[in-house]
Amino acid sequence: MIGTVRRLKDRTSIDDSSNVRPEDLLDTVCDRESFIAFVEALASERERAQQIEREHPNRYVVDGALGWMNGDIQSYLYASLDYFAEGPLKDPPATEPSWKMLAEFLWCGKIIE
Length: 113
What we know:
By secondary structure, the chain is mainly alpha-helical. It is 52% helix and 0% strand. It has one domain (2-9, 17-111). The chain has helices at residues 2-10, 22-26, 32-55, 73-80, 99-111.
């Protein structure tokens, strides 16, 4: 598994994920490859956000850089779970999982406090 992740991170068939915004890829997720491209862009963006936060710690006391609301894994995962929460203005997620659903779940971890 770790070897697979390393190979995926090192591959060059997908455009450089460091220049791609995850929100630009979110609506295109439809299969394994597009999901991986989305996750790579999300991870790359978080790395950039962490660097910005280290360079300007006083500016990012409450929220993180680049729109990241959750900088630690537990906060990120709890926020991601909001994807499944019921609400008056939310359509319930599909009962059958899809690549897009997984991407939306991860996206929620970034944007929801």
